[in-house]
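tool_call: predict_structure(chain=1)
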Amino acid sequence: MNSREKGYKAESFAQEYLEHKGYKILEKNYCIRGGEIDIIAEVEKEIVFVEVKSLANEDTISLEETVTEKKTKSLIRASKHWLKTQNFDNIDWRIDFIGLILDNGKIKKLKHLQNAIY
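tool_result:
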């Protein structure tokens, strides 16, 4: 499985996890110039922008360390752009992080950090 396939698999697992937790998926892979959001969802009248990361293991880097400062800025920019295009100027929103460690296409570990980026 190449890295693109792993990414899609991780996003699919993350979507299933979120739906199981009661999140309504609004959009996937939202792209603007200089930014992408893996999953946009809604839960309890709050918009949640989700960054999904997958690793082979956590030996060399923790899941939290995979989101760089550059990625943080692009996530915030893309989130604000999406909110503006949807006319959601006065709605609560946050950016979450879902990290997965996959082993042979199966989830070995899933970590969900709410309000991971602010």
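agent: DSSP finds two helices and five strands in the chain. Proceeding to next step.
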